[in-house]
Amino acid sequence: SGTGTFDDATIVGATYTPSAADISGGNITLTISTDDPGGPCNAATDDMILIINPSATTTAGSNDTICEGDVKVLSGSIGGSASNATWTSSGTGTFDDATLLGATYTPSAADAIAGTVTLTISTDDPTGPCNAATDNLVLVINQAPTVIAGADATVCEGSGHTLSGTMGGGASSITWTTSGTG
């Protein structure tokens, strides 16, 4: 009764591939029939109902970059036969509630040192023949910039002062400014 296709409808072990209409309908009837044998016997037929369960689906969202010390608010989604999902991490950070699609992930110091962490969302294993679904996103964690101006100093009027600042972390350049007019 469906609109899918058989790989070879003339063999008993044929494979039927449901169409989009079959899938959205949820089930179809498949009928097997014999030829009309010679003699007084009629052809034989039998039906079966093929129930088509929707696959579980999930999306973790897009890869992202954050700064060390920031958190990532996730935006996962599920569909098909999935009814819930759980987040896991390749790192050692924490989730506020790993069962929420919009969970918040707080990277650990080790995650920040590593520079990336993979966050994975996995659906429940739906009843029926369909498997659970998973998806990943890669979270890049940029080191926070650091800068130290150096120790306070005293100079004599008319003298210059050589500064001894330092930078680190994710900083790649610095700029000095003054509260004065020098």
Notable characteristics:
mainly beta, 7% helix, rod-shaped
Detailed description of the structure:
It is a single chain. With 182 residues, the protein is mainly beta. The chain is 7% helix and 37% strand. Strands 6-13-12-9 form a four-stranded mixed sheet. A hairpin with an 8-residue loop joins strand 10 (94-95) and strand 11. The model has no long low-confidence stretch (mean pLDDT 93).
Query: What string gives the helices and strands in order?
Result: EEHEEEEEEEEEHEEEE
The fraction of residues assigned to DSSP E strands is 35-45%
- The protein's oligomeric status is single chain
Low-confidence stretches: none
The gross shape turns out to be rod-shaped
Largest sheet, described in full?
4 strands, mixed
User: Radius of gyration in whole Å, from Cα?
Assistant: 32 Å
**Spatial sequence of strands, sheet with the most strands:** 6-13-12-9
User: Can you give the helix content as a percent range?
Assistant: under 10%
> Number of helical runs?
2
Mean pLDDT: 93
Question: Terminal Cα separation, in Å?
Answer: 88 Å
Class by alpha and beta content: mainly beta
Please provide the count of β strands: 15
